[in-house]
Write a structure and sequence with these properties.
Elements: H1 15-47, H2 50-77, H3 80-103, H4 109-137, H5 143-171, H6 174-194, H7 201-207, H8 216-229, H9 233-252, H10 254-261, H11 266-290, H12 296-316, H13 322-350, H14 356-385, H15 387-406, H16 409-412, H17 414-427
Helix pairs in contact: 1-4, 1-5, 1-6, 2-4, 2-8, 2-14, 3-4, 3-6, 4-14, 5-11, 5-13, 9-14, 9-15, 10-11, 11-13, 12-13, 12-15, 14-15
């Protein structure tokens, strides 16, 4: 797999540096979420078209699916701190263009589509660069807790963004709402400029001439080889893709479940969303305090089983037990954290720091690609067999796959497999 270079030593007083960067990124995430809400609201109010909203969602997915796999090799070759600075700055610059268009009265749906594409392209570089840098700043034993904290942040952002965005839309013109994203991006970039972020060992070794230099295409091919050759890693990546395939429609069909099956309205739909968001926050807090089982994959599989149970309960409930569905949504949110957080920690702790950009983007692109594909399948299936069918199929499949994975040694020993592989390589 190339030159074997040890991971850098992380100082004992790691928290101040990492959480300074994390706080800046958290503020920037809130700004981005507010802008996302405002743009969706503007498109809804302006066109009232479901096709426009669906197209906007698809456009935002495209860079994550097609650009991310190629971005990973660049992230591993370039200075990751500069990647994040440039990505944040590009997103802010795109938003500035949109601010000008709204201020000049020249806004259009196609302009919004273009800006959404550019913002997503920036995110295709920024998010994996931050994730890959985290393992160079946080001790391996603390990665699951940090992943739990990230999940908590996402849950909080999902809950506060709609009401806060609606408040800003009522108080400010559209360009004023968009300006919040620019301000928060400036804060995040300012922190990145002054705080040091370690670079991958091989990148440093190549810079000082102690390791051979490779071409971009060699690095890209090496990423695919790394993913396929590590016992268990490809299986876990495929598991994540299948879970995403099953969960995306379950989420998108909730409004139909609430209105057509439970015969409820917008208020009750809001309660389901709030319960799911609260579950994410609770699960994130529990994981950040607990850290999960010593064998991280056990925590993830437990979370997947919990997701399956939550989906099954939601799909099986009689129409007169709607309020029990709120408990199901709470369970889904918390178990999603238990499934995703430890998986993220596994990738960050066990994947070589030099390879993380490539591995994280390949896995992320595969999971994201499942979303449009699953929606294409779920719609006709639900229309043909009923809305509940997808919940019964999806919930059962989650439970069955997680139980089967428990009896697959390469999955259960994914982290140990990598350590043995490294030991074998060094012995040779």
């Amino acid at each position: 797999m190339g030159d074997s270079i040890n991971s850098p030593v992380i100082p004992e007083k790691w928290a101040a540096r990492f959480f300074t960067i994390w706080a800046g990124q958290a503020v920037s995430l809130i700004g981005s979420s507010l802008v996302q809400f405002a743009l969706v609201w503007w498109m809804t109010r302006t066109t009232g078209s479901a096709t426009v909203l669906a197209t906007a969602s698809l456009i935002a997915m495209l860079p994550q699916i097609f650009l991310a796999p190629f971005a990973g090799a660049l992230i591993d070759r370039w200075n990751r701190k500069m990647v994040m600075i440039v990505a944040d700055s590009l997103i802010a610059l795109a938003t500035l263009v949109l601010i000008y268009l709204f201020a000049a009265g020249r806004e259009s749906i196609w302009a919004v589509y273009t800006i959404l594409f550019i913002r997503s392209a920036g995110g295709a570089f920024h998010y994996p660069a931050m994730q890959a840098s985290t393992s160079l700043m946080v001790p391996k034993a603390q990665l699951a807790r940090v992943a739990g904290l990230n999940q908590t942040l996402n849950g909080i952002v999902n809950i506060i963004s709609p009401p806060l965005g609606a408040l800003l839309i009522g108080l400010l013109p559209m360009q004023g709402v968009l300006a919040t994203d620019v301000i928060t991006a400036i804060l995040a970039v300012s922190i990145l400029v002054v705080v040091a972020i370690p670079q991958p060992p091989r990148q440093l070794a190549q810079a000082n001439g102690t390791a051979r230099k490779t071409s971009y295409w060699q690095d890209l091919r090496e990423g695919w080889t790394y993913l396929i050759s590590w016992p268990g890693l490809l299986a876990v990546a495929l598991l994540a893709m299948i879970i995403n395939f099953l969960l995306t429609p379950a989420s998108s069909l909730i409004p139909l479940m609430v209105t057509k099956v439970f015969q409820k309205g917008a208020l009750e739909l809001g309660w389901v969303d709030a319960a799911f968001g609260l579950g994410i926050i609770i699960g994130g807090l529990v994981l950040s305090a607990w850290g999960g089982f010593k064998k991280r994959i056990v925590t993830s599989l437990m979370g997947i089983i919990g997701i399956g149970v939550g989906i099954l309960v939601f799909g099986l409930l009689p129409t007169n037990l709607f309020y029990v569905s709120l408990i199901s949504a709470l369970l889904l949110g918390s178990m999603q954290v238990m499934a995703n957080g430890p998986l993220s920690a596994i990738f960050q702790s066990a994947v070589d720091p030099d390879m993380q950009g490539r591995v994280l983007t390949l896995v992320g692109a595969g999971a994201t690609a499942m979303s449009p594909l699953s929606l294409l399948v779920a719609g006709p299936v639900s229309d043909w067999l009923g809305i509940r069918t997808w919940y019964l199929l999806g919930g059962s499949a989650c439970i069955i796959m997680a139980v089967i994975a428990i009896f697959i040694p390469v999955v259960m020993n994914i982290e140990e497999n990598r350590q043995k592989s490294l030991a074998g390589s060094s012995a040779e």
